[in-house]
Amino acid sequence: MKSVMIIISSSMQLTPRQAYTFDVIFKTFLGLDWFFEMTANENVQIRLRGENGHIDLPKNDLLFDKDESMGISNFGYWNANEMRGSAQLIDQAMPVIFSGTKSAFVQTNGYIRLPIDILGVTFFMLSRIEESWDQPTDAYGRFPAKSAIADRLGFLHRPIVDEYIEILRSAMQWLWPVLKIKTLRNSSVEVTCDVDRPISVEQRLPDLLQNMGRDVIRAGNVKNAIMRGIRFTKARLRGMSEDQYLTNIRTIMMLNEHFGNRVTFYFMTGSHHPLDGDCWIDHPAVRTVLREIDSRDHNIGLHPSYLTTQEPSLLDQEAQKLRQILEVENIQKPLIACRQHYLRWKAAKTPLALQKAGFKIDATLGFPEKPGFRCGTAKHFPLYDLQSEQSLQLVEAPLHFMDSSILGASYQNMGLSGAAFNL
After folding, report:
1. Strand ranges in 184-333 using DSSP code E only, listed in sequence order
2. Alpha helix (H) ranges present in 7-101?
3. Which of 264, 276, 215, 269 is nearest to 397 (CA)?
């Protein structure tokens, strides 16, 4: 039986960026094989082998000619109601990036011209290339949401890549009704928890005294200092097994089991910076919780420490330490997932470093200060290394919603309000 094959043609030679983009759109998201051929086409032409008709897409400099910061002067909207088909979108007013409204929409028997730059925007959003350009960072060295084109132009709340590909799917199925494409709308909930500190009390007496001093001198909170001392004393007398943080981990498991969710807990194994937590990873009570997480069929991942984005050797050390612990505790599931501490990410460095450290899944790419779609998609996708210009085996499981982004005073500061629950 002849396999379904999408033929993609353009006047430019196939580059790694193009191959990555075609692979993500057609193979990963739509489940279709594709083949590229050079022609004299001014645009990018999409055809189905053995069928008449074609689709024209704009050709983007980011993929076909140049590597430079893309301007947003051509930004506009396209009314997707113009297109006949079955596209299911969040809003019919589709943001049009880079190609602007220069290309008019056309739909006739055997031909569709789409005015949206599906290829360029997909690569732009998934590769996070805008974060590799000379951009301001926040106090923690992170690319802030306010600098992202998605936030500046008001579509961070939309999975723009998914919507663009949904329009392409609809166009293809309208043009070629015989084409069978896998659905894009399967949904699931993935719950994760970053365990900066699995135990609430300080590991050492000097740490306790330092923190009590901070409570009194900096915050003027004598009560908090006293409670900190009481917790420390109780923990030493009764042991750590009933510590509030460990109890919280068990509560998270229990609640999610009720709803059929499997949780991934990201544990730290290194502390090299004041913003790293007391990981307590060698404490017997923490080892017990690790075994319990595994026995209840939840997952364990690594929460690489603050400096690992700058020092890959630390990442290797921390990953190796957690793998050794899992082996000692007879936990058979391999360590394949991670999320960077403070969501620190360097687009041109971090993906390859994580892959070299043996990880297969990363869950870092969300903005800490607000919910939304940093990568423009709700789906898992392979990452791209901007330094070596190659597609990676490392898969991104993007982060869309974080409790502290909504509830925390440092970010949205909504607390347990109705507005927070309506998000």
Report:
1. 191-195, 263-267, 299-302
2. 16-22, 61-64
3. 264
Q: How far is CA 220 from the centre of its chain?
A: 39
- Cα–Cα dist 68/321, whole Å: 40
Band (411; pLDDT cuts 50, 70, 90): low
The candidate with the shortest Cα–Cα distance to 301, out of 337, 276, 269, 355, is 337
What does the pLDDT read at residue 1? 39
Q: Which pair of tokens denotes residue 30? A: 């739509």
The mean pLDDT of 282-289, rounded to a whole number, is 93
**159-183 mean pLDDT:** 92
* pLDDT (0 to 100) of residue 237: 59
Tell me how far apart the terminal alpha carbons of the chain are, to the nearest angstrom.
47
Query: Which residue(s) pair with 10 in the sheet?
Result: 38
**Structure-token match 């309208």, residue found:** 174
pLDDT digits (tens, 9 = 90+) for 99-137: 644 678 999 999 999 999 999 999 999 999 999 988 889
* Chain centroid, CA 3 distance in Å: 32
Q: How far is CA 149 from CA 96, 130, 158, 251, 300, in A?
A: 12, 8, 13, 38, 34
Sequence-ordered strand ranges (E) for 11-60: 33-38, 44-48, 54-57
The pairing of beta strand 54-57 with beta strand 44-48: antiparallel
- What are the start-end ranges of the E strands in 72-137? 76-79, 93-96, 106-108, 111-113
- Sheet bearing 381-385, strands edge to edge: 191-195, 263-267, 299-302, 337-338, 361-362, 390-396, 381-385
Asked if 406 contacts 420 with a C-beta cutoff of 8 angstroms, the reply is yes
Predicted local distance difference test score (pLDDT) of residue 227: 80
Q: Are 268 and 196 in contact (CB under 8 A)?
A: yes
